[in-house]
Amino acid sequence: MTAQPHERPGGTPLPDKSLRAIRAALVVPQDREAFDSGLKAVLDEVRVSLDLGVLNDFVHRWWLSACDSVNDPEGRRQMHARAEQIQAGEAVPQGRPWREILAEREAER
Fold first, then answer.
1. Cβ atoms 16, 63 nearer than 8 A
2. Sign of the torsion formed by the C-alpha atoms of 26, 32, 34 and 38
3. pTM score, two decimals?
4. d(CA 35, CA 69)
5. What is the pLDDT of residues 2-14, one digit of tens each?
6. SS3 sequence, the chain?
7. How big is the chain by its Cα radius of gyration, in Å?
8. Average pLDDT over every residue of 90-105
């Protein structure tokens, strides 16, 4: 059994829920690097514990990130750039509060 692509209304299909498709959908180098190192760690854990649940959790979490990459690749790049600024101790301009954004989205429905 294989995972089928998920369709978005009027948009690019989301990646399959397979390791290869997920990695291919990751457009930001930092995501691919984190995916690769995380996969190695998860496979090591599966080898020891014989529990595929951790691999399933890994696939699901990274599938969400891959979907985000497909939906908003530039937003993904900006997220990593901002994280690097914060880690470097640089001053980062504050964005809009989440409550404001969510209220605006609710009003648009």
1. no
2. positive
3. 0.72
4. 13
5. 455 555 555 778 9
6. CCCCCECCCCCCCECCCCHHHHHHHCCCHHHHHHHHHHHHHHHHHHHHHCCCHHHHHHHHHHHHHHHHHHHCHHHHHHHHHHHHHHHCCCCCCCCCCHHHHHHHHHHHC
7. 17
8. 79
Token match 């690769």: residue? 36
Residues 33/17, Cβ–Cβ less than 8 Å: no
Q: What is the pLDDT of residues 49-79, one digit of tens each?
A: 999 999 999 999 999 999 999 999 898 998 8
Distance CA 39, CA 16 (A): 17
